Recover the amino acids of this structure.
């Protein structure tokens, strides 16, 4: 499965993936339109890509996007659910439903972690938020993320990026 850097042309697809991340349990709790209108959710993609945003997109061999992971620094006065600090980008991961359970999430996460270490100013830590009951917590833990706090019904997890700094 090819993985490439995310670009400005991927913005609409990233909104679809943000919806999948929010609807991780298979219930359609949110639409893209609802997320785009939500002042908290919109922080993850408004103006994609900003100067220090980075991400990756997984595609089928035919070039059809099937998943993505990206990271963005958020200001302290507009934090994300997994906010740790202004210098710790918060990541988002999602895979389209028909492609889950095949290791694509791991491939995307590994590519994003490598991209973090390769940024012009290497990213030394990444954070994320994972809701209670989300099976992705096993993936995050296996990659070295550790619990750093709680925000409502979610854990905030942090990774010290290998090879950065």
């Amino acid at each position: 499965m090819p993985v490439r850097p995310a670009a400005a042309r991927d913005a609409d697809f990233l909104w679809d993936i943000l919806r999948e991340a929010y609807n991780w349990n298979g219930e359609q709790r949110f639409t893209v339109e609802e997320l785009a209108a939500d002042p908290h959710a919109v922080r993850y993609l408004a103006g994609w890509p900003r100067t220090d945003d980075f991400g990756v997109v997984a595609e089928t061999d035919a070039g059809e996007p099937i998943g993505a992971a990206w990271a963005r620094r958020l200001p302290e006065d507009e934090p994300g659910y997994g906010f740790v600090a202004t210098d710790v980008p918060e990541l988002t991961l999602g895979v389209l439903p028909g492609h889950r359970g095949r290791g694509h999430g791991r491939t995307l996460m590994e590519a994003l972690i490598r991209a973090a270490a390769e940024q012009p100013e290497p990213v030394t830590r990444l954070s994320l938020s994972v809701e209670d009951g989300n099976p992705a917590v096993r993936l995050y833990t296996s990659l070295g993320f550790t619990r750093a706090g709680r925000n409502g019904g979610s854990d905030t997890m942090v990774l010290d990026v290998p090879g950065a700094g």
In short: The longest strand covers residues 65-72. Strands lie at 3-5, 54-59, 65-72, 90-95, 125-131, 146-151, 154-160. The longest helix spans residues 104-117. The CA atoms of residues 117 and 164 lie 5 Å apart.
